[in-house]
Amino acid sequence: MTCSTIRFVFAATLLCSSAFAQSASLIPSSALAASPAASAAVTGTVEDPSGAIIPGAQVSLTDATGATVSTTTTDASGSFRMLAPQPGAYSVAASLAGFQTATAAVTVAASGSPAALTITLSVAAAVQQVTVSAGSQVDLTASENNGDTAVMTSSDLKDLPVFDNDFVTAMGSFLDSGDAGTAGSGLMVDGVEANRSVVSPSAVQEVHINQDPYSAQYYRPGRGQIEIITKQSADAYHGQFNFLFRDSALNAQQDFSPSKPFEQRRIYEGNLTGPVLHSKNTMFLFSFNRAEEDLNAVVNATVAPAPDNPNGIFNVNVPAPTRDTEFSFRIGHQFSDKNSASVMYAFQDATNRNSGVGNQTLPEAGYNTETREDDLIFHDDYILSPTKLNQASIVLERSYDPVSDVQEGPQIRVNGNYTGGSAQADQVNTEYNLRANEMVTWTQGPHTMKFGMNLPHFSRRVRDDLTNQDGTYTFSPTYDATGTLVTTAIQNQQANSPSGFSMQQGQTRFVYHQQEVGGFFQDQIKLKPWFSVTPGLRYDWQNFLGGDRNNFSPRLSFAWVWDQAHDLVLRGGGGIYYDRTGSGPLVDLARYQFAKLRLLQLSANQQPLCFPIADCVDTTALPPSLVELAPGIKTPYQIQYGLSLDRRVGEKGTVSIGGRMNRGVDVFRSIDVNAPLGPDYTTRPNPNVSQLRQIQSAGTQIGSALDINYRGRFNKRFTGFAWYTWSHYANNTDGITWFPQNQQEPNAEWGPASWDQRNHFGLYGSINPQHLLNLGVGVFANSGHPWSVLTGTDSFGDNLFNARPEGVARNSEIGPDYADLDLRWGYDFKLEPKEIDKSPTLGLSISSFDVLNHPNGSFVDTTEGSPDFGQVTSAEPPRRLQLAMRFNF
After folding, report:
1. Residue 706, CA atoms < 13 Å, CB-side half-sphere
2. What is the pLDDT of residue 849?
3. In angstroms, rounded to a whole number, what is the distance separating the alpha carbons of residues 184 and 581?
């Protein structure tokens, strides 16, 4: 597929998506700068020690005075071409993260071009993320070179204690929940938003967080998303196979478990790359991952006493096996020196049994899930001119996600004690989605301009909704006027006296659409060799809010080289970041805005309830609950700004210290505008409607943070990255589905945000890397999250059960802290010792997670009147050992 074809398809897609897209006849994409025209060409190939070509390597041409006269990047075949301005002696330097920088001398004669070069990059003894040094060719002021970032490379994934090779979860520890937004944290794969990594872990080149925090290219702030760069195909056959194994016999005892349950995990993963039929211009990359995990969930609940269980303690291990099969196949072709393209198919099929079971959720309330996803990805690179490069991507996705109950029947919620009966979660979700992305980078004098457009979602979604068909009963404790406990929730459940009831009837199939379009322009201006500024503007459109769809977000950042001798760089910036809602509010409006799906809700404040409900209530006569958008609702946005100071330490390390501020404006919340009125909270103003949920943009959030970050090679004994953050976030809403306790006083909820975490520390590092006596280290320590004390009652008659004791503020308590030490030892044995650089290797490793077996609580019982109120009732997994074998050729 040619570049012009992809651009045509992409433009046609946008023409169908929105009026904004209809005005775009050509949508440019990402790019790479090249040097201006010159008299003689310096050409060559960059490869690794085994002879495999290395695409994406940075190559620079430096003259005898030390001035860089040209830069470029190797193409899909590992080749480069630069133009020398005049005859003379030059130095060519090639670099890429994970490899040692290599140089080669070349002489350009007055006539003709020199012979093609072959530059070999040796694998770095430690991962080095080059920032800026006085003697390097890297621009210290470039925004993507900021020191306040976390980077994990393919070498890290081999050397560090990463649980299950799950690098996305591992790097997720370095995200900031305050930057996530309504739709959650983001994932970018090769510059395109994605649901998951479409390649296996061994086919990943690098993972970044906060690479360019104030870039207009992204709608999220830097700490709100993970960026994955996958490996390129090679022109020689190479591969890797990994096998990971864990067994409960090697683990410590799980907290709150009545006995050590049997668990075993087997993970098979790898990749293979090389030419197609020995072609020099067509290459492939195949990756796969198969995970078989026989796990157990620990239930620790209190149920009604019985003759064989007089204390009502229900503590069992419940099998919760999972299976996950993923593979991808990509073929790339180099059409010319200016044009290359690739096509990839990626597949996932994952199943989970007894999901949701554990802690206070009984086995009968579990559910089974399946996730099936198919992705077809087209990508095209086209060099428009020596100073412009266009990149375009189109992704077609199909997902199928059925959910089925383990047991059918009504759900029983006994607040503070247990959830049983049934999950009431039967549903099937299907999505057909189109993503597209196109960007251009254009270098002109001191300007490096980037502009482009993206289509994160142009999707058709279907929800077949059979949830809560049999009803949900909620039982709460009873208190007298002084707040003294009269009857427990268990006693009310035994008396068949629920405090709330809900169920759904009516239409079950809903079709809705999620559409989002974005565009941006930014210009990194090199005003001085030691100072650059990058202004930018982003545009975002989404179909959720009819009256506030066109959002413009200005961004600005700068970098000032304060002391080049020590690589001391002051960076700063700020910008506006508009929120996205995700699909949740869209499906809620599709189901409940016009009562197509009748959500029936009833509180004991309105009338006495019973179990079963048919004995005392005619449910066919109950009014439905509705969902609506508040008049004048706006798109929420964050204002974020900060400063940081980077300095080189050790051999090739960087320390960054910085502060940032965050303010959320027009933040989402939900209000029941038909809630019963005080003081008795028994009668709804409109008797023809039950709950009338109004989605509003009236919340506020403020936050501040201090970050201390390190990354790089300190000396030959240690390399790695670490991130410490002190932060404080406060708000008066917990998001678009959150309700205040009193619907008449929605602004009386100011308190710590639910994700507020004062201290957050994470470190990954390698000690004595590449040596037999090596050690990979992971250290994580976090303060606890806040939680709210709840009465467990429906004090306000709205069936929300989120009331707090009188005078107790929201999120007034702090949950358990977290501390974890992970270690890994491993070594790669060369199978052909005489071929040092080209020898296949067999690697063996052992990792231990939570080496000290530190107890880390994961849940606190928040309901007053329950037997475990204020106590930790579940915990994170104990110490676990992971054995691994790796074959690389």
Report:
1. 3
2. 97
3. 9
Hey, is 443 helix, strand or coil?
Answer: strand
Neighbours of 68 (CB within 10 A): 15
Q: What is the mean pLDDT of each run of 10 residues along the chain (889 residues)?
A: 36 32 32 38 75 74 76 75 83 76 81 74 40 48 78 88 92 87 87 92 91 90 90 87 96 94 95 90 95 96 94 96 97 90 97 97 98 96 87 96 98 98 98 96 90 95 98 96 93 97 96 96 93 96 87 96 91 95 93 95 94 94 96 95 94 93 96 95 96 97 96 91 95 96 95 95 93 95 97 96 96 97 95 76 96 96 95 96 96
Measure the CA–CA gap between 127 and 283, rounded to whole angstroms.
27
Count of helix runs (H) and strand runs (E) in the chain: 6, 49
| Of 757, 660, 761, nearest in space to 210 by CA | 660
Quick one: tokens of 489?
């929730």
pLDDT reported for residue 337: 81
445/442 Cα distance (integer angstroms): 10
At 615, give phi and psi (nearest 5°): -75, -15
Those residues whose C-beta lies under 8 Å from the C-beta of residue 258, and which sit 6 or more positions away, are 315, 316, 317
3-state secondary structure (DSSP) of residue 589: helix
Task: Determine the Cα–Cα distance for residues 650 and 670; give it in Å rounded to an integer.
Answer: 51
| Distance in angstroms (rounded) separating the CA atoms of residues 150 and 163 | 18
CA trace torsion 110, 111, 112, 116 (10° rounding): -20
Is-contact 642 658, C-beta < 8 A?
Answer: yes
Say if strands 68-73 and 102-108 run parallel, antiparallel, or are unpaired. Answer: unpaired
Q: Provide the pLDDT for residue 29.
A: 33
| CA dist., res. 873 & res. 301, Å (int) | 8
End-to-end CA distance of the chain: give it in Å, rounded.
31
Which CATH entry fits the domain spanning 31-120: 2.60.40.10, 1.10.760.10, 3.40.50.300, 2.60.130.10? Answer: 2.60.40.10
Contact in structure between 29 and 392 (CB atoms under 8 Å): yes
How far, in Å, CA of 667 to CA of 701, rounded? 7
Q: Provide the strand spans (E) within 423-508.
A: 427-444, 447-465, 472-475, 478-479, 485-487, 500-506
Which whole-number Å values give the CA distances from 573 to 187, 559, 660, 728, in the listed order? 23, 9, 9, 20
pLDDT at res. 684: 96
- Residue 868: CB atoms within 10 Å: 16
The pTM assigned to this predicted structure is 0.84
- Closest among 455, 543, 532 to 29, alpha carbons compared: 455
Q: How crowded is the C-beta side of 543, counted as CA atoms within 13 Å?
A: 18
The most distant pair of C-alpha atoms in the chain lies apart, rounded to whole Å, by 100
pLDDT of residue 53: 65
Strand ranges (E), 234-356: 238-247, 264-275, 282-294, 296-302, 313-319, 322-334, 339-355
Residues 6+ apart with CB under 8 A from 610: 496, 497, 498, 616, 617
Distances (CA, A) of 184 to 46, 50, 223, 518, 669: 39, 41, 12, 18, 15
Q: Residue 169 CB: number of other CB atoms within 10 A? A: 11
Distance (Å, rounded) from C-alpha 729 to C-alpha 711?
Answer: 26
Rounded to whole angstroms, the Cα distance separating 619 from 616 reads 9
Strands (E) in 768-889, as ranges, are: 775-782, 786-787, 813-814, 818-830, 841-849, 857-860, 872-875, 880-888
Report the C-alpha gap between 644 and 702 in whole angstroms.
20
Are the beta carbons of 201 and 167 closer than 8 angstroms? Answer: yes
Non-local (6+) Cβ contacts of 459 within 8 A are 397, 431, 432, 433, 434, 513, 514, 515, 583
Contact between 283 and 331 (Cβ < 8 Å): yes
Q: How many CA atoms lie within 13 A of 602 on its CB side?
A: 26
CATH for 238-888?
Answer: 2.40.170.20
pLDDT at 383: 86
Name the residue ranges covered by the structural domains of the chain.
Answer: 31-120, 238-888
